Predict the 3D structure of the following.
Amino acid sequence: MKKHYVQYLTQAAMIAAIYAVLTIAQNLLIPGSASMAVQFRVAEALTVLAIYTPAAIPGLTLGCVLANISSVTAGLGFYDMIFGSIASLLAAITMYLLRNVRVKEIPVPALLMPALFNGLIIGFEIDFFFIGNLHFNMADFMIQGGLVAVGELAVLIVLGIPLCILLNRKGEQMGIVPKRKS
């Protein structure tokens, strides 16, 4: 029991650290590429891990909090830290719940969840707090949410699907995917 708990905490901490470091490094190397409305946040490929381990749920959420702390200094305020982390948490939970719904061994519905939640939640955040000055505008929300969702989908198609395929094939050997019961 204790071994399982330590493994869970270790996985969650590693996922959080990798997510935060990748996002912060990306923003340092290519400013805004991981924190603006149109973004290709490479670390979002790690959301795929929520399909394979429940430890990814707190790991991705904490990683997002840590990564978005750096965006506070970029002028995005605490809103991004709060709303982005909520979007990550909801996406990770939903991905884990949908992990067994697959199309040709690819968990397609689960892979759509980060785009859905980030598009809705971050789209609202951008419209309400940054564009609308505390006023909601449906057209701006649709544009901003759409831009966020497209960036998220791009990451999951370009990086997430290949990572799923790799984990489906080699995950057991790598110790990431639990061994299947015979």
Summary: The first helix runs from residue 2 to 29. The two ends are 22 Å apart (CA to CA). The chain is about 70% helix and 0% strand.
